[in-house]
Amino acid sequence: MYKRILLKLSGEALKGDTPFGIDPKTVASIAEQIKEVQELGVEVGIVVGGGNIWRGKTASELGMDRAQADYMGMLATIMNGLAVQDSLEHLGVPTRVMTAINCNQVAEPYVRRRAIRHLEKGRVCIFVGGLGNPYFSTDTACVLRATEIGAEVVLMAKNATEGVYDSDPRKNPQAKMYEELTFSEILNKNLAVMDSTAASLCKDNNLNLIVFNMNNRGNIRRVVQGEKIGTLVKVK
Fold first, then answer.
1. pLDDT, tens only, 154-198
2. Beta strands of the chain (E only): which ranges?
3. Contact partners, residue 170, CB within 8 Å, separation at least 6
4. What are the φ/ψ torsions at residue 82 (nearest 5 degrees)?
5. Distance of CA 98 to CAs 101, 108, 136, 199, Å?
């Protein structure tokens, strides 16, 4: 259904059942699912979060300088991106890690035209380092990268969450899951899907979002093939 996608992997998705950090088995499973999609001929870009290692916002709330805490979070996304790259390349999938922060020994700098060329050649591009600036979330980085590379949709892979709910399903067993929403509804209802900057960017750039549970193996492929899974967030 899609020629080019941007997959947003939360840091939590990489930790599996462990309290924090990177679970190699979980990352390997994610890599296998990405390979399935890539073999369909879909061009895949990935933005990785860092919440399994470090959360800049939480640290700043505890008294740390916000900019410093955010930079540490960006470094965490680089670590996660390298882990995903390693698993993909073990499966024979060509990848490039592209970073918004200079880190030449382990990743190449993000250049939009170069990223598009990598995608056209069948390489999976893993975008790390956020936007290279503090005060912006990886959600915002995800939407901006999707817009820059011309992705047709953003796929937001959640850890053990089926979609978008009207309240936290882990705290409220009666929480209702939405099948479809608009970005205006997300902003008006203050739903915890992505930050308001990212939602506004999607809305302004006519970019749809699908939120789904990636713990169910094969869900990435199903979404790409057009199956109705999770929550579709539309511009209108």
1. 999 887 788 999 888 888 888 899 999 999 998 888 887 888 899
2. 4-9, 43-48, 95-99, 108-109, 124-128, 153-158, 164-165, 177-178, 180-182, 208-213, 231-234
3. none
4. -65, -35
5. 9, 5, 18, 23
Task: Give me the residue spans of the domains in the chain.
Answer: 4-234
| Residue 130 C-beta-side C-alpha neighbours within 13 Å | 25
Q: What is the pLDDT of residue 58?
A: 77
Cα–Cα distance, 97 to 46 (Å, whole number): 9
Q: Residue 156 in contact with residue 209, Cβ under 8 Å?
A: yes
Q: In 3-state terms, the chain is what percent helix, strand and coil (to 5)?
A: 40, 20, 40
Low-confidence ranges of the chain (pLDDT < 70): none
Q: Which fold has domain 4-234?
A: Carbamate kinase (3.40.1160)
End-to-end CA distance of the chain: give it in Å, rounded: 20
